[in-house]
């Protein structure tokens, strides 16, 4: 640990300086911190660059993580930062503005300068754990309730709101799946088609919704009704065939935000990507390695469905794989030198 700490102290100077690490992790969420923890324990000189924008910041608690169920996300991340510090991993609060590769990776930090003229740090391996952001439909009152009584994941929040009056806002025909899933936590579910036409639903969709007891309401949703800081209803737009301006009493509204992956850095570095129903993500192997040698993607930067426990697992797997890659590369170099 002392060796790692000493290295970062001597090389991470002021603006304009170039610092050298073995691994840089961009993103200080569950995936990035987990990778950094493994690397720190493997005595790798590691830097975590964290812009401080966790996806689950609106949530009061994280759920379904064995031994951490119910812990506030901020507390979880604080514990992770304390753990990596014990192993000499450096963490800086900063934003990455660019990255290039010329053998090693050169990562330029904003450093608080308006021109983006912060320092450049270099590393042999680069982990991108920048996650994604949730883009919500532009409905009055929706964003302010997100993470409270406007929710997206029944596995994350379903138990806490069980047996209440649920609404599900359709954002695409795929929202049928969400409407069916939430019936595990409440038998009072109304499916608001919003901008999805009823004819876009398949006969199988309609049969399943009926079998699950889900009420289907066509027409666009205009806004939410909030009383005494709690959701009490969903209001339809004027002129809606099913009752323009009608108010449907609901206590919880599930919605599937449009995921917007933060993968611009990966693309600039040449990583191959692929289109999925949930956005464009990098092509990675089972360890998280992209198509660019030494460039890794973990957590929601590698896929939509990585919840906190999954993201931590992906980070751990990548960290262990990176340590192995570095070790074998150094051994191979030593063998080559010995043969000269």
Describe the model.
This protein is of the alpha/beta class and 340 residues long. It contains nine helices and 19 strands. Helix 2 runs parallel beside helix 3 and helix 2 packs parallel to helix 9.
Fraction of helical residues = 25-40%
> Between the first and last Cα atoms, what is the distance in angstroms?
34 Å
Query: What is the N-to-C order of secondary-structure elements (H for helix, E for strand)?
Result: HEHEHEEEEEHEHEHEHEEEEEEHEEEH
| Main beta sheet | 7 strands, mixed
Mean pLDDT: 91
Task: Provide a compact summary of the structure.
The protein is an alpha/beta fold and 340 residues long. The protein has 9 helices and 19 strands.
Write the layout of secondary structure elements.
Layout: H1 2-11, E1 18-26, H2 30-41, E2 46-50, H3 73-85, E3 90-93, E4 96-102, E5 104-109, E6 120-128, E7 132-135, H4 142-145, E8 150-151, H5 154-157, E9 166-169, H6 175-181, E10 189-192, H7 203-211, E11 215-217, E12 221-227, E13 230-236, E14 247-249, E15 252-255, E16 258-261, H8 264-268, E17 273-276, E18 279-282, E19 295-297, H9 308-339
Parallel strand pairs: 1-2, 1-6, 2-3, 6-19, 8-15, 9-10, 9-15, 10-11
Antiparallel strand pairs: 4-5, 5-6, 7-16, 12-13, 13-14, 17-18
